[in-house]
Amino acid sequence: xxxxxxxxxxxxxxxxxxxxxxxxxxxxxxxxxxxxxxxxxxxxxxxxxxxxxxxxxxxxxxxxxxxxxxxxxxxxxxxxxxxxxxxxxxxxxxxxxxxxxxxxxxxxxxxxxxxxxxxxxxxxxxxxxxxxxxxxxxxxxxxxxxxxxxxxxxxxxxxxxxxxxxxxxxxxxxxxxxxxxxxxxxxxxxxxxxxxxxxxxxxxxxxxxxxxxxxxxxxxxxxxxxxxxxxxxxxxxxxxxxxxxxxxxxxxxxxxxxxxxxxxxxxxxxxxxxxxxxxxxxxxxxxxxxxxxxxxxxxxxxxxxxxxxxxxxxxxxxxxx
Amino acid sequence: xxxxxxxxxxxxxxxxxxxxxxxxxxxxxxxxxxxxxxxxxxxxxxxxxxxxxxxxxxxxxxxxxxxxxxxxxxxxxxxxxxxxxxxxxxxxxxxxxxxxxxxxxxxxxxxxxxxxxxxxxxxxxxxxxxxxxxxxxxxxxxxxxxxxxxxxxxxxxxxxxxxxxxxxxxxxxxxxxxxxxxxxxxxxxxxxxxxxxxxxxxxxxxxxxxxxxxxxxxxxxxxxxxxxxxxxxxxxxxxxxxxxxxxxxxxxxxxxxxxxxxxxxxxxxxxxxxxxxxxxxxxxxxxxxxxxxxxxxxxxxxxxxxxxxxxxxxxxxxxxxxxxxxxxx
Lengths: 321, 329
Fold this sequence. Notes:
The complex is a heterodimer.
Chain A: H1 3-17, E1 21-25, H2 41-45, E2 50-52, H3 57-69, E3 73-77, H4 81-84, H5 88-95, H6 98-101, E4 111-113, H7 131-135, E5 141-143, H8 148-160, E6 165-167, E7 193-196, E8 201-205, H9 209-222, E9 227-231, E10 234-236, H10 240-250, E11 253-260, H11 265-277, E12 286-290, H12 299-303, H13 309-320
Parallel strand pairs in A: 1-2, 1-3, 3-4, 4-6, 5-6, 8-9, 8-11, 11-12
Antiparallel strand pairs in A: 5-10, 7-9
Helix pairs in contact in A: 1-8, 3-5, 9-13, 10-11
Chain B: H1 9-34, H2 49-56, E1 64-66, H3 72-77, H4 82-89, H5 122-137, E2 143-148, H6 155-166, E3 171-177, E4 180-181, E5 184-185, H7 195-201, E6 206-210, H8 214-229, E7 235-240, H9 258-266, H10 269-279, H11 284-307
Helix pairs in contact in B: 1-2, 1-10, 1-11, 2-8, 4-11, 5-6
């Protein structure tokens, strides 16, 4: 089952289980979303529960917030993280804060899907990875699934969560296939996955960079270096304990993400580890991430913004030497 | 209860009491802000009381409303407790939002109040969303979105009108047109003929009324809310009024001609209602007694708010979120 099909299955299961779950966004009906992640659901659940909306991101988000406050669980499809910025006011000023501002009288159980990342030359307004923006906002949960199984189990958790969840699928992962247990329980947020064990260096990553980091770990293993690859899965909350435990073993921390390095979440992870484990580190922590440029269209230019497994291998070897 | 063509004295008397309570509340809150007894924004609703009162007289407890920064009147008209509200304005324990929100976020959700709001027009999109939930759940509720004329120029407002129409949602848009967008005359920054035309452009039946005439508001609200409750889709009420005070309790008012302010404040919705009651057999002594009663009630609310303890600072982290909630470090 692909990453897109896994998400579709999770939504279908949750909609069958709970009649208050519904989805809204552009082109969800016949077209089934940008990647078929809603395919056939409108036929199964009707136009009132899989709602095709106008191109009105503010209102899509406002509708979800109002409806979430009044006894339903909306799943918002914003199609591209870049377009979620059109609804940033509603997400930041309302969804994230209503519960707090009203002193806990009401909650906003909404899932806000906004796929991230570079894919197939979509250029500067359809390729961004903006996860760090949302992590900065108190009240939001931020989820970045890397595998079909996680996209299934984490989307279930997101739909059952009583607080707003920023759910960031990666566009380049839509067609990636993997094992999915349809009966899997929702996965608790803040539980990282140890994707590859090793005792020489800890590589912390998420989303599309998990597979790239695993490829790097295989190459490192061939050279006798043990890389421990941690997929954080959720960035807020993030599994600080798992990272601390691993770095306590390896003494080396490398964070890899597709988002721009400056102000990226890698900086927060490095800072936390440096503050709490400075004496345990064998070398300075490092970050591998995109340069601070808009994502360019032309393929060789775009490739300059991507982190390749060989870069990870090179950085790891430098840190271990 | 809905208005008939000739409202009863009892009904008008009830609305008069609500207007008096709103007036006394905002007179006291504004003064407390000017005296430095409370912090933050206080946007007084003085002069506009007839709109919240006349509209909410046609709502049930189970109906929803959303408000905006000038929101005290809507909460009081929906039945919120003025003591818990005043404590909220003072940031005290026992405030209706635990002191987390203050004037701009005051809300009693148990009365269907989705909240005052600090961002212009955001409450409108949320009200439309509430209406979508009502329709999805098959409930018999009406949602009212209150907003000022300044909101007409925000994009989300236009998205909301379109959305309510295409999904045929049970929502009444109530534009409280006090002629000012913050400190700028709305007509000077608005293209086209204004509120009614905006509603008409989206195919939403709309009417303009004298928002300082509580009987007119009541009658129009009764019609429009009745239509919505009957499943006829969204409606729009454009109520003309005048904001007696500044945008905020402390603004200097340099942008308004004193002659205009004198004309605007001469048209007092409360005095007009008092005159109507007087002409329908209610004595001047009764009316004066009710004014004193409202003032006394709010004085007691102020005293309770001033005497109330501060919130426990440990509540800082309450209700941020369940998972990933912050803690003391």
